[in-house]
Specification:
Elements lengths: L2 H32 L6 H27 L8 H20 L5 H24 L8
Helix pairs in contact: 1-2, 1-4, 2-3, 3-4
């Protein structure tokens, strides 16, 4: 197996992980909304982990785009990746880091959007969402 194949596989698996993580964060966010809870330190930590996961996957994608023969025919995949990397920092900037219940609603909605974005990115790459 070549280095590019290993990075391709890691990029694909991180894509699946990002999808499932965003879906779990969506459910957790909506559960917190139903319980009338605000953003707390546990949820902040999970948000940071989500952003690191997306940035790591994006870094592998940038490597594949510039330094390997693996190229996608559909450029919209790159757009989904860029928007996915920016949606959480944009939500943080919009909420100004507040920890009120209203902000929990925003983060729940943002993770729902992120779930859809990661699913669409996987679909445009010609991959299916795998449950292993």
């Amino acid at each position: 197996m070549t280095l590019q194949e290993i990075i391709w596989e890691a990029h694909a698996r991180l894509g699946n992980a990002a999808f499932y993580y965003a879906a779990i964060m969506t459910l957790w966010g909506f559960w917190r909304i139903l319980k009338k809870r605000a953003v707390d330190s546990n949820y902040w930590g999970a948000i940071v982990i989500a952003e690191i996961l997306i940035l790591l996957q994006g870094a592998l994608g940038v490597y594949l785009y510039f330094f390997s023969e693996f190229r996608l025919a559909r450029q919209v995949h790159i757009l989904y990746g860029i928007v996915s990397a920016l949606v959480l920092p944009a939500a943080f900037a919009y909420t100004r880091g507040n920890q009120e219940r209203r902000d929990m609603i925003i983060y729940g909605a943002v993770f729902l959007i992120l779930t859809v974005l990661t699913a669409r990115a996987l679909m445009t790459a010609g991959m299916v969402i795998v449950i292993e």
